[in-house]
């Protein structure tokens, strides 16, 4: 079996160089604890500050092997773009994996301690001081990362390459998740529609998972952190040069142009 540090070095070096990997650089993690050991090594090697976390659902087909409803990965400060006042550019690795996902972003307004226990969505609402619309930029040096399953995804920063922050939802506490609706366009064509209800249990259930998960890793969720809660319209592959628009009904549009890392 490949050592977690060896895998972390392979992924972080490829990310820094903007270089695609032809295959998984070692033995696939057999379980999520092993995958998160790789992720922790990679966090230690990466020269940036964690500003938040992405959460993604794990498909039922993978549950027999990876017994968890969701997975998580870090979002780093230099990979965050603010699109509240207009379009932004977001880089992905040519020949690697790149995708856009319309998501709802929670901003943490009070420190969430590292308590490894189950949290309810209602318990967590007072810790959130804002909800924004936005996008997760999924990305990896390995084009087939998603195809290899949750262990591979979790090992490479959860397949995250950034986050795009859009406008704030003024009345977020007055609508059910099914009322937070969105459509995604890539190069002008609608390729997905959905709502926050597509996130199992809603965005606050994703937050509840994350708080417990991080606590088991000895990590808290400090004030000012962002949580990207999960895709709402699908995972939409993109390459450098593609332009993505996420249209959030009653809130606004989030737009990004995909560029090449180092380009």
Short description:
By secondary structure, the chain is α+β, with helices and mostly antiparallel strands. Helix content is 20%, strand content 34%.
Description of the structure:
- The chain has one domain (4-260): Fumarylacetoacetase-like, C-terminal domain (Fumarylacetoacetate hydrolase, domain 2), CATH 3.90.850.
- It is an alpha+beta fold and 263 residues long.
- Strands 1, 2, 3, 5, 6, 7, 10 and 11 form an eight-stranded mixed beta sheet that branches. The protein has a five-stranded mixed beta sheet with strand order 4-13-12-8-9, with no helix packed on it.
- The chain is globular, with a radius of gyration of 17 Å.
- The protein is built from five helices and 13 strands.
- It has helices spanning 4-17, 32-45, 121-124, 150-155, 203-216, and strands spanning 50-57, 70-76, 80-82, 88-92, 97-108, 128-140, 160-168, 181-186, 189-195, 226-228, 236-237, 243-248, 252-260.
- A hairpin with a 2-residue loop joins strand 8 (181-186) and strand 9.
- The mean pLDDT is 96.
- 46% of the residues are buried.
- Its EC number is 4.2.1.80.
- This is 2-keto-4-pentenoate hydratase.
- One of its GO terms (molecular function) is 2-oxopent-4-enoate hydratase activity.
- It is an enzyme of class 4 (lyase).
- Residues 86-255 form the Fumarylacetoacetase-like C-terminal domain.
């Amino acid at each position: 079996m490949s050592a977690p540090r060896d895998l972390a070095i392979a992924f972080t070096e490829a990310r820094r160089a903007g270089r695609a990997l032809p295959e998984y650089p070692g033995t696939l993690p057999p379980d999520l604890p092993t995958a998160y050991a790789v992720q922790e090594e990679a966090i230690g090697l990466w020269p940036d500050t964690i500003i938040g976390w992405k959460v993604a659902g794990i498909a039922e087909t993978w549950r027999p092997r990876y017994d968890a409803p969701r997975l998580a990965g870090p979002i780093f400060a230099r990979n965050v773009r603010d699109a509240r006042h207009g379009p932004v550019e977001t880089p992905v690795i040519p020949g690697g994996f790149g995708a856009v996902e319309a998501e709802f972003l929670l901003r943490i307004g009070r420190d969430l301690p590292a308590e490894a226990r189950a949290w309810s969505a209602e318990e967590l609402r007072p810790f959130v001081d804002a909800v924004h619309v936005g996008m997760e930029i999924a990305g990896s040096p390995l084009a087939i990362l998603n195809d290899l399953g949750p262990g591979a995804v979790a090992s490479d920063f959860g397949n995250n390459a950034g986050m795009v922050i859009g406008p704030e939802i003024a009345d977020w506490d007055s609508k059910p998740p099914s009322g937070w609706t969105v459509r995604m366009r890539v190069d002008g064509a609608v390729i997905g529609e959905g709502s926050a209800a597509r996130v199992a249990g809603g965005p606050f259930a994703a937050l509840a998972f994350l708080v417990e998960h991080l606590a088991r890793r000895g990590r808290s969720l400090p004030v000012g952190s962002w949580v990207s809660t999960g895709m709402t319209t699908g995972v939409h592959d993109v390459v450098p040069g593609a332009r993505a628009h996420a249209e959030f009904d009653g809130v606004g549009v989030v737009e990004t142009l995909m560029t090449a890392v180092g380009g």
